C-alpha cells in the first residue's frame, strides 16, 4: 500500500516538470519577433565575404596615386595634339594626317601614343597620299618600331597594288626581322612576278618596271586597280568556272 502513494507522487512530479518545460519554450518563442528570427537566420550569410566591386582600387593608396599621376601626365603632353588634329575642323585632313604621322615617328613619345597616332593617320590618309605614310618607314631621323611598320604593311593590303609594292620595297630596304622581310618579299614577288631574293638594286628596277607597266589611275578612279580582296574574289570566280 505504501508503494501506491509513492507512484502517484512520482507521476505528479513528472507532469509538473513537463508543464514547466513547455511553458518556458513557448515564452522564449513569443519573445523573439519575426524580424529577430530572420536576422538570426541571415547571420551566417552576412558573415560571408561579399563579392569585390571590380571598380574598387586594385592598388594601395600610394601606388594608385602614382599610377594616376603618370596617366594624367601623358594627355598633358599629347592630348592637346590629338584634340587639335582630330577635332579642329580648321585644320585640313592632309595637315592633320601629317601631324599625326609626326607623332607616330617621334621616338620620344610613348608607344601607345605612337600607335594611336599612326592608326588615326592611316584613317585620314587616302591612297594618293600614302607615300607620306611610307616616308616614315625610311626616315633618317629615327628608326620606326617594327610594330608600327607591321601596322603600315597590314593597312596597305586594303590599298592599291602600287601602294602595296612601294610599302613592301620600303620594308625590304630597312632593317627588320626576318619574318617581316619575308612577308614583304612575298608581296613583291606576287605583284611583279619576279624573284630577286635580297638584291635591293634588282628589286628597285623591278618596282620601277611595275610602276611603268601599271600606271597609277587618276584620283577617284578605282576601276583600273583593285585590292587583295578583289584579287581573291576574281580567283574564286575563275575556280568556279
Structural summary, described in words:
With 241 residues, the chain is mainly alpha-helical. Among the domains are: 75-125, no CATH class; 133-218, no CATH class. The protein has eleven helices and no strands. It has helices spanning 3-31, 34-46, 61-87, 93-104, 111-124, 130-135, 146-156, 161-172, 178-192, 200-213, 228-240. The longest helix is centred in the N-terminal third of the chain and has 29 residues, at 3-31. It is elongated.
Helix vs. strand class = mainly alpha
Strand content: under 5%
Order of helices and strands: HHHHHHHHHHH
Chain-averaged pLDDT: 75
Principal-axes geometry comes out as elongated
User: What is the number of beta strands?
Assistant: 0
Largest sheet: none
Cα radius of gyration in angstroms: 39 Å
Helix content: 55-70%
What is the helix tally? 11
| Straight-line N-to-C gap | 122 Å
Are there runs of 5+ residues with pLDDT below 50, and where? 32-60, 66-71, 237-241
Quick structural overview:
With 241 residues, the protein is an all-alpha fold.
Features:
elongated, single chain
What topology does this entry show?
Elements: H1 3-31, H2 34-46, H3 61-87, H4 93-104, H5 111-124, H6 130-135, H7 146-156, H8 161-172, H9 178-192, H10 200-213, H11 228-240
Helix pairs in contact: 3-4, 4-5, 5-7, 7-8, 8-9, 8-10
Amino acid at each position: 500500500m505504501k508503494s501506491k502513494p509513492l507512484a502517484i507522487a512520482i507521476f505528479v512530479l513528472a507532469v509538473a516538470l513537463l508543464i514547466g518545460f513547455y511553458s518556458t519554450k513557448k515564452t522564449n518563442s513569443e519573445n523573439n519577433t519575426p524580424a529577430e528570427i530572420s536576422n538570426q537566420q541571415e547571420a551566417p550569410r552576412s558573415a560571408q565575404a561579399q563579392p569585390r566591386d571590380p571598380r574598387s582600387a586594385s592598388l594601395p593608396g600610394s601606388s594608385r596615386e602614382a599610377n594616376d599621376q603618370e596617366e594624367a601626365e601623358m594627355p598633358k603632353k599629347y592630348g592637346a595634339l590629338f584634340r587639335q588634329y582630330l577635332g579642329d575642323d580648321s585644320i585640313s585632313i592632309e595637315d592633320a594626317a601629317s601631324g599625326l604621322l609626326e607623332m607616330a615617328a617621334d621616338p620620344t613619345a610613348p608607344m601607345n601614343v605612337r600607335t594611336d597616332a599612326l592608326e588615326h593617320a592611316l584613317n585620314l590618309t587616302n591612297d594618293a597620299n600614302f607615300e607620306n605614310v611610307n616616308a616614315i618607314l625610311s626616315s633618317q631621323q629615327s628608326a620606326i618600331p617594327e610594330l608600327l611598320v607591321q601596322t603600315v604593311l597590314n593597312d596597305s593590303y586594303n590599298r592599291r597594288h602600287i601602294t602595296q609594292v612601294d610599302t613592301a620595297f620600303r620594308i625590304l630596304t630597312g632593317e627588320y626581322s626576318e619574318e617581316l622581310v619575308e612577308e614583304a618579299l612575298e608581296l613583291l614577288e606576287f605583284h611583279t612576278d619576279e624573284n630577286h631574293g635580297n638584291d635591293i638594286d634588282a628589286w628597285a628596277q623591278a618596282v620601277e618596271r611595275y610602276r611603268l607597266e601599271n600606271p597609277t589611275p587618276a584620283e577617284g578612279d578605282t576601276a583600273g586597280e583593285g585590292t587583295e580582296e578583289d584579287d581573291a574574289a576574281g580567283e574564286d570566280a575563275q575556280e568556279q568556272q
